[in-house]
Amino acid sequence: MTAARRFVVAPAAVGQRLDLFLAEQVGSVSRSQLARQIGQAAVTVNGEAGVPSRKLRAGDVVSWAPPAVVATEIAAEDLPLAIVHEDRWLVVIDKPAGLVVHPAPGHEAGTLVNALLAHCRDLRGIGGELRPGIVHRIDKDTSGLLVVAKDDQTMNALGAAFKAHAVERVYDALVVGKPPGADGIGLNNVRERLAVQFEGRARLTAGPQGTNQGAQWRSEITLPEIQDSPDRQAASSAAPIAASR
Fold first, then answer.
1. 37 and 103 share one domain
2. pTM for this one?
């Protein structure tokens, strides 16, 4: 359990919201989670319960006593997992196609989260609940590496990295037909595969610098590498994805 902490508001923080001030002081917990804890009376200002929007004054004493992590209602299941890497902060799983990540109606059991609850004995809690933190998603029928956090600090750091596109995700996919483009998508000169990129909108490139010189189609069934998410690319392309991994 995270230890309670006490902060004295400096003149530079006068007028700042309580939740924002606390988020800057406690880097391991998200602002939204701290706002929930304020509502649970886990945060006081000068000994009194606060509200997230409270404006602070110089010399205010902010006390934070994070509530204990509660057990999840999701059942742990001893299912086989392909562990690529694991340390005290995270675990990287090679998820097979067909495995559902989160429990949901129709898939309450037999998911990756069920298996991780049985495998990971050093979880420290995500969002106040003793469960693994799925940093990014992979669809049921897609295989690939999945990063899972074991605590809030790791979850927040990895989530920020994915949001900032500091982590590159590359997928292989079978594409039916020819994706749209004046010249099609040429062979990548490095990997010798067809390349598709998605950066806010459909962007078709070929070659290490995105050149498209001498582009030729291999066949009506092509095997591109897709950077980012295969389902998002499929939604923006006239060539539907037959399979991805």
1. no
2. 0.59
